[in-house]
């Protein structure tokens, strides 16, 4: 009996800890997602010779010359300036148009409202290539080609339907009695909408602004088709980097790293709004 007890104690002493399979899968998944970003950062800190001739997990000769080229060469850093200009313009225009439209869809019922709402969403479903040639001919004829407003307005075709769809879901969650109470208290529609209603859907505005910003920031086809020099965004510049000496992979990698930064900052500041959007089922 004593031997049996000792054997049981020994077996308990060498018991292996249980492995959390979910944690392992999540860790592998995060590594899989972060590997391209790490490799991009790794390339941006190498010389072009090291990138082409050696396979290293970290830079042997650490250099920031690639970032210096991006930040000092107007051909590069103006791409970021142009991108930020038309992205901000597009986000402001899209939200300005989408807010009253979403309010109308959430508060009023009229003939063909559901068909109109569905037709609005179909514009978001269409590929950008369908509209590239019509926009090119239109803007060339009216003198808007190669301007920031041209790209901003073109992106509104896709961002306004998405913003209306997101905001309409948030607005439906606000009781209509709030509108009626505000009107009884003497508020005009404009004052009620800005002072009372918009703060109630601030999370929805944040989510819509995030998606408008991200689509306009990463979109390539329209921004490349509708610009040449003055308003060329960074996404288009990165596709035209081959010169007489070939492709400068280090500079291109540095440009890629800097292109990720604005999107990461936007995600950080609106992360709570995005989580609420998931909870409400509109994201």
From TrEMBL:
The chain crosses the membrane at residues 21-41, 84-105, 117-136, 148-171, 192-218, 249-270. It is found in: Cell membrane. The keyword Nucleotide-binding does not apply. Keywords: Cell membrane, Membrane, Transmembrane, Transmembrane helix, Transport. Residues 80-270 form the ABC transmembrane type-1 domain. It comes from the Bacteria. This is Carbohydrate ABC transporter permease.
């Amino acid at each position: 009996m004593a031997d049996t007890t000792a054997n049981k104690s020994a077996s308990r002493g060498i018991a292996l800890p249980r492995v959390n399979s979910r944690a392992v899968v999540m860790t592998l998944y995060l590594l899989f997602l972060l590997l391209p970003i790490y490799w991009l950062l790794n390339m941006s800190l190498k010389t072009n010779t090291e990138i082409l001739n050696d396979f290293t997990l970290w830079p042997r000769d650490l250099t920031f010359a690639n970032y210096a080229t991006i930040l000092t060469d107007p051909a590069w850093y103006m791409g970021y300036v142009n991108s930020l200009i038309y992205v901000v313009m597009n986000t402001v225009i899209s939200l300005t148009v989408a807010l009253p439209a979403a309010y109308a869809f959430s508060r009023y019922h009229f003939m063909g409202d559901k068909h109109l709402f569905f037709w609005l969403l179909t514009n978001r479903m269409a590929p950008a290539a369908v509209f590239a040639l019509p926009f090119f001919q239109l803007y060339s004829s009216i003198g808007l080609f190669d301007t920031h407003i041209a790209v901003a307005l073109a992106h509104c075709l896709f961002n306004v339907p998405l913003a209306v769809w997101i905001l309409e879901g948030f607005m439906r969650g606000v009781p209509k009695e709030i509108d009626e109470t505000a009107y009884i208290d003497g508020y005009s529609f404009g004052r009620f909408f800005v002072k009372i209603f918009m703060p109630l859907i601030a999370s929805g505005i944040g989510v819509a602004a995030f998606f408008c910003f991200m689509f306009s920031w990463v979109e390539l086809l329209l921004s490349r088709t509708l610009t040449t020099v003055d308003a060329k965004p960074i996404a288009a510049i990165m596709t035209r980097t081959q010169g007489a000496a070939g492709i400068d992979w280090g500079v291109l990698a540095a440009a890629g790293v800097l292109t990720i930064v604005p999107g990461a900052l936007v995600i950080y500041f609106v992360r709570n709004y995005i989580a609420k959007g998931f909870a409400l089922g509109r994201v």
